[in-house]
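Standup notes, structure subgroup. Blocker cleared on the nicotinamide-adenine-dinucleotide input:
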Amino acid sequence: MESPRQSDASSPVEPCSPICVDTPATQSSVLFDGNLDDLLRNFPLHQYILVTGGLGFIGSHTTLELLKAGYNVIVIDNLSNSFQSVFDRINLLAQKHHEEQGTQMPALHLDAHDYRDTAALKALLEQYQIQSRWGSPKSNIAGVIHFAAYKAVEESIRNPLKYYANNVSGLVDFATTLGEYGIKTFIFSSSATVYGTLATSGLPLKEELCAHKDEVFQGVDGLDQTVKAGCTGITNPYGRTKWMCEAILADLAASDPEWTIVALRYFNPIGCDESGLLGEDPRQTPTNLLPVVVKVMTGEYMELQMFGTDWETEDGTAVRDFIHVTDLARGHIAALDAANAENLVENFRAFNLGTGRGHSVMEVVDTMESVSSKRIPTRAAPRRPGDVGSCVAVATRSQQELHWKTEKTLRDACGSLCKFLEVGSLSFP
Ligand code: NAD
Ligand code: WQD
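Run returned:
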């Protein structure tokens, strides 16, 4: 797709270009030029959050929530699995929110390139660098949320090097460059897939079960349990890329206390913004449950194949911890706030982002039928290779340490998808 490499949403807050000076005098003149209410409501006006993959399914919702919360955002996305028009929709929704609230719209910029393009990345980071004659480099970019990655499990089995190159090698170079510019607050998109077959071991899926150093925690019997660092049973190369990235980031944090790194292990993100204007609209053919259900609802697919009706679950279909994408997006803000407030237990910390409650594939279909008043034809099909019967988070660590919990239900998610079908075209361009 042809697109301008850099797009700016109109905003009263311009990037510090080309260089900002970190003297108290400059900061105070920036601060007191504005209205005090705005100042208190907003994240420091001169600071930005860099979001890679910010036009994708989860990235677009997180960018919107960041803007609503008053953060200035720079998005890097190469549009390999998203569309430029998502940028306009995020901007529209954020503008509308701030108009309604009577608050100031933060800045939003898009750099449409590969996050692995180090020359383009450096050119971008130069613009936000704070010139300092002494000490380590500083930046007006106060944190990075890194979504950009490939995520199709089946493709990762066929073409593992594509996945290791983008998800793992890309991360190594990216973190190296960020470090050179003094940007060391990093939120990483991990996945429940790192638990692999542990999901069906009968053990509650606590973060300690899959860790990068030996962990001692209280087991279900109330006794201390020691788990050795490492993870076994990951079922595909995509899952391994997520585990490897976590391990690399844990090593980086251990080597340099200036880094604060959070790995967020998402369970099954579903739904979309309540406006219906953002959604899950990948260029690749979707294989996840809800996007397939949506295609059945639009008539694009005849029926939903239910992969596995003989699992050891109440109705025989697989159980997952479905989390509304808006809740998930807000989890990133909670993580960012905790990281920047230095409120984390250690400078590399992994968190499950899930509801802590499971729903079966059949329950999803029933709920969608009830919300949409449409019949969704289904057909029992054999288990999909690599699937597990049940995968549900223990969500207490994120509740206690990030002060975040989910608010939306499976019904809310189905309702938002119906709205997406109504108002947001399924094809974005
Ligand atoms: P997505 O494909 O919708 O979004 C990823 C975005 O990154 C896309 O807009 C794509 O164009 C962009 N991108 C990919 N490679 C890039 C590169 N090299 N440079 C610049 N941009 C690039 O995926 P998503 O569902 O939003 O997932 C976001 C992240 O969350 C991924 O890291 C994924 O592995 C992780 N995750 C997703 C799920 C899920 O079920 N959706 C679950 C757990 C973890
Ligand atoms: C859920 C359930 C399917 C489609 C995947 C990745 C995981 C993470 C989230 C990124 C399963 C069943 C599905 C269909 C069906 N992604 N299903 N018919 O497999 O739990 O997790 O996405 O990190 O890594 O593996 O999610 O939505 O694909 O499937 O019956 O047409 O729905 O078999 O039991 P999954 P899913």
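Discussed briefly. The CA atoms of residues 136 and 156 lie 39 Å apart.
Next: hand off to the docking folks.
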